[in-house]
Each structure stands twice: as structure tokens, then as C-alpha cells.
Amino acid sequence: MSPRRPPRLATALLCRLTRPTETVLGDLLEQFEGGKSRLWYWRQVIGLIAQTAVGEIQQSRALVVRVMASGLILTIIAPPTITAIIRFDQWLFVRGFGWFYRNGYGLPPSMASHPWRIATASYVLLGWCVGWLAQRRQAAVVLLFAMSIFISDSAFLSYHLASHSVDFDNGYNLAQIVVFTVVILPLAALFGGVSARIWGSNQSGVIA
Fold it and tell me: Minimal CA–CA distance to 124: which of 112, 116, 113?
């Protein structure tokens, strides 16, 4: 009978976002093979990542300010930037460069009519950039950036709903907007940051 294998994703996240010792990895594997559940394994991994992030944050309080400010700035500039991307061909047309617009060289209709795809891809890309630039203290930076997106988006969404009348007749109901804003976008940034760490590890050929 082959031994039980722990969740590969959990192990990969632990190795990419922290620097676990062989003793820690061996202890987790031993207890998992001894009968601990997959949920238990995930809880241990999340706890170790959080512990690493807290330690890195305590070493540099300025890091918290910089990363949180980055998330706030992204939340402010994201809507107009996405609108500009969608209407870029029209912007050129108004300014005398009509060839792109007349010949249909704008975004594909599947993208232009679904701005959430552009937003998600943008947050993944920015999360990747943040994770790649972080180098050291990557666990803290990646988690803080995703947290800053969550806090900023939640605040701006609350303000918008409280101060503006929202039209949900276009197929987007309130639940969809809330889930996309405060769940999907922070997860997209987190995914991008973790992907940068995995990419960096594969490039170097070692697990840092």
C-alpha cells in the first residue's frame, strides 16, 4: 500500500512563500501519514505562512505602509484605466486616428462586453509584478497586497453603494458585484503574487 500524499498545492504554497526547514516538512508529512486529515494539513500550512508573514511585517513596518498604499492606489486607478482600455480605439478615432476604429481593431467583443475579464487579468498581472519585485519577505508582501485590495475595494464599494443609485438591470445583481469586488479581485492579486514566486523558483531551479 502506497503512503498517503499530502495536498501538493498546500506544500507548494508553503515552500514558495516561506523557507521551511526539512524538520518542519518532515514533521508535517509524518503526522499526515499518521492519520491527520487534509484539512488539518491545510490549517498547518496556512498557519505557518501567516506566522512567516507576521514576522516579516514586524521586521519592517514601512513595508506595511508601502504595500497598503499600493493597493489603495490600484483601487483608485483601476476603473478609469479599464474604461480607457475598452475605449482606446474610440479615443484614437476622436483624435483623428480613425483607422483602428473603422477597421475593427479594438478589443474583441467578448472582452469589451465583459470588463470583469480585463479587471481580473489586470489584478493577476499586478499581483505577479508585486510578488516578483518583492524578492525577500514575499509572504508578507503578497498577503498584504491582497489584503489591501480587499480593504480598499470593500471601502470604495460601500461608499459607492451608499452614495449612488445603482442600476442592476444589465444582468449584474448586487451579490455578483460584491463577490467580484471583495473576493475575486483580491484572490486574483494573490494568485498573481504566488505565481510570481513559483515562476521565480522554477527559473532559479531551487526552492528558496
Answer: 116
pLDDT tens for residues 128-167? 888 887 766 677 788 888 888 898 888 888 887 777 666 5
The model carries a pTM of: 0.66
- Residue 191 and residue 149 in contact, taking contact as beta carbons nearer than 8 Å: no
What tens digit of pLDDT does each residue of 56-110 get? 777 777 777 888 888 888 888 887 887 777 776 666 666 666 655 566 665 666 6
**Nearest CA-CA partner of 143 in 39, 48, 25, 38:** 48
Q: Measuring CA to CA, how many Å separate 180 from each of 33, 172, 188?
A: 38, 10, 10
- Here the cell at position 159 is 461608499
Q: Residues, the chain, total?
A: 208
Cβ-proximal residues to 67 (8 Å cutoff; 6+ apart), any chain: 130, 140, 141, 144, 145, 148
Contact yes or no for 114/183 (Cβ under 8 A): no
